[in-house]
Design goal:
This protein is mainly α and 199 residues long. The protein has ten helices and no strands. It binds SN-glycerol-3-phosphate (G3P). It holds the Pfam family G3P_acyltransf.
């Protein structure tokens, strides 16, 4: 029981590491929360500090989810990997190390799925880039990937057998991603959401 609590706390703390804030402040003397969308994620780092910083932060945020989901294996305890995975997503979104103002749950959720369901992760990555190519909105593409994740789990469940924990977690995370993008949704409706220019 104690081990389980320790793993869950580590997962939350891991998710709480504000990679965007660290990379921005250490290497660029910039607080990305004062720029662009104000979000502490890979997209806003990319927007504010460029490709190198954006990619580094995105990969770091993915890694947080992957590592958190791997914790039960690493600690050799009987705990479903999606549980510490969700804790890492909560840490990433409400980080104790950054005033509880974090990212929008996309990359870290992806990292959890990369560990638990790698083919689902690859499918989401593909759907994200197809949607990005068509719409030019990162936020909309993130939400669409959330919807694709739910559809994927429902379809594979129907044909190959249900993974109920995955269905529950993916549905919750997809809803949470939409909830975290409320401001983006308003901007898309008002046509003030920035589009990417490089794809
Ligand atoms: O992962 C976050 C992305 O979907 C939107 O980020 O900075 O455009 O609000 P941002």
């Amino acid at each position: 029981m104690i081990e389980m609590i320790v793993v869950l706390v580590i997962a939350y703390l891991l998710g709480s590491i504000p990679s965007g804030l660290i990379i921005g402040k250490v290497f660029y003397k910039t607080d990305i929360r004062q720029h662009g969308s104000g979000n502490l994620g890979g997209t806003n780092t990319f927007r504010t500090l460029g490709v190198k910083a954006g990619l580094t932060v995105t990969l770091a945020d993915i890694l947080k989810g992957t590592l958190a989901a791997a914790l039960p294996n690493l600690f050799a305890i009987d705990l479903h990997p999606l549980i510490p995975g969700v804790l890492a997503v909560l840490g990433h979104t409400y980080p104790i190390f950054a005033g509880f103002r974090g990212g929008k749950a996309v990359a870290t959720s992806g990292g959890v799925l990369l560990f638990y369901a790698p083919f689902l992760f690859i499918t989401l990555l593909a759907s994200f880039f197809v949607s990005l190519y068509i719409t030019k909105y990162v936020s909309l593409s993130s939400m669409i990937a959330g919807g694709v994740a739910v559809l994927y789990v429902l379809t594979t469940g129907f044909f190959q057998g249900w993974d109920i924990p995955l269905l529950i977690v993916v549905s919750l995370l997809a809803s949470f991603v939409i909830y975290r993008h409320r401001a983006n949704i308003n901007r898309i409706i008002n046509k003030t959401e920035p589009k990417i220019k490089w794809l």
